[in-house]
Amino acid sequence: MYRGYLPFFIVLAQATGSLAKTVTYDWNVTWVLASPDGFTRPVIGINDEWPCPKIEADVGDLVTITLNNKLGNETTGLHFHGINQVNTNSMDGAVSVNQCPLPPDHTVKYKFYADEPGTYWYHSHDMGQYPDGFRGPLIIHDPDDPYKDEFDEEVILTLTDWYRDQTPTLMKAMIDPNNTQFAPPLPNSTLVNDGGDGHISVEAGKTYRFRMINWSAMFSTFIQFGDFDMDVIAIDASYVKRQSVKQLRISAAQRTDVLITIPEDADKNYPYLVVLDVNQDFASKNPPRPIRFPFNVTGMLVTDDDKDKSGTVEIKKFEPFDDATFAPHDDEEVYGPVDRQWILNFDYCFDVNRYPRACFNETTYIAQKVPALYSAASLGENNTQTEAYGQIGAFVAGYGEVLEIIINNNNDAIHPFHLHGHQFQVLARPASDSGNWSADVEINNLPPKRDTMAVNAKSFAVFRIKADNPGVYLFHCHVEWHVEMGLTATLLEAPDKLVNYTIPQDHLDACDAMGIPTTGNAAGNEEWDDTDGFVTVPPTEYTG
Question: Is the distance from CB of 125 to CB of 79 less than 8 angstroms?
Answer without folding.
Answer: yes
